[in-house]
Structures are given as structure tokens and as C-alpha cells.
């Protein structure tokens, strides 16, 4: 069965008040994400990965330590990453659920320190990539960053929150100000209920 582009869980202009414009979502979801899905379907056709789950493809095609990953991995991982990313945002962000807040304070000292370290990870990712809050295999929370499309699945981790720091995610709304984009993401766009549900 072919992979399909998931619908956004909100309208294209729903996040505009929170700092992510309709234009960004039209380019990011409708063009960039769609291109990953289309290319993935093309690349897996006739291979051992045809018919496999997206997670199995990501984990099975990742090459640890490789400077560049193969095409199937790149497109599968970016399809997975973006599918999570849309769900991790909401037009109506609410308070952080108490269970998540307690886990974050236990791991990072405070919510403010967590946001600071998460932003630093995203800003410190040279070139394209992602910043993540993950639950590690030992159950502890960690902040990580990955290059290009590499994601927590590759390391046996559970992705709780991910922020895309490829330029196409922020350049329309924030130009080259990646730190402001990350701060805005954490303060105005994150669906903390969704993040908590991943614990």
C-alpha cells in the first residue's frame, strides 16, 4: 500500500496567530512533505521495503555513522518526522499537563531550563535537522539534535517533541532568526497534551 500525505490536523491558517503562517504551511506541508511521500513511494517500489511500515523502513535503512543516508531512509524519515511535527502543534495551546511538567522538572530542573536547552539544541544544529525531547531506553528524558532527517527511532528512543530546523520551516515567517522561531514554537505552538500522551 502506498504512503499518503496526512491531512493537517487544523486549517492552513490556524497557526497564524501563533506565528506560523498559512504560506509556511502551504509550502511546508503541501509541497515539502508531499515531495517526501511521493519520492518514498517511488523509491520503495519493487524493493524489500515495499509494503513495510514506515517505522520499519526508517529503522531498517538507517546507516549509523554514515555521513550521508540513502534516499529511502531520507524520505521515509522525513515523512515520519513531519507527520509527528503537525500533531505536536495546535492552534490552542494549553497548560502543560502535570505529569509532563513533573517529568521535565525532574530531568531539567525547571520548564524554563528545559525550553532554554531545547532552543540551544535547535540553534546549535549546524545546517538542516531537528531538535528533540525524547524518552530514552532507560526511561529518562533527554534533549537531542539530529542532522537532516535522522530521528529518535534510529536510536531506540521515543520522540516526545520535535522541532524542524530546516530553513523551509521558518524562513518565510522568521527569515534567518532560528532562535526566535524555536522560542515561538515552544511558547505559542506546542500541543503539550500531545507531548504528554507520548510519555
What would your notes on this structure say?
The chain is mainly alpha-helical and 199 residues long. It folds into 2 domains: 20-87, Fe,Mn superoxide dismutase (SOD) domain (Helix Hairpins), CATH 1.10.287.990; 98-197, Iron/manganese superoxide dismutase, C-terminal domain (minor pseudopilin epsh fold). It is 48% helix and 11% strand. It has helices spanning 22-44, 54-61, 71-87, 98-108, 111-124, 171-174, 178-189, 192-197, and strands at residues 129-135, 141-147, 158-164. The chain has a 3-stranded antiparallel sheet with strand order 2-1-3, sandwiched between helices. The mean pLDDT is 97.
Present the secondary structure layout.
Layout: H1 22-44, H2 54-61, H3 71-87, H4 98-108, H5 111-124, E1 129-135, E2 141-147, E3 158-164, H6 171-174, H7 178-189, H8 192-197
Number of strands: 3
Tell me about the largest β-sheet.
3 strands, antiparallel
* Span between termini: 30 Å
Low-confidence stretches are: none
Tally of distinct domains: 2
**Helix-strand string:** HHHHHEEEHHH
Give the strand content. Answer: 5-15%
CATH superfamily of the largest domain: Iron/manganese superoxide dismutase, C-terminal domain
The total of helices stands at 8
Find the CATH topology of the largest domain: minor pseudopilin epsh fold
Q: Quick one: CATH class of the largest domain?
A: Alpha Beta
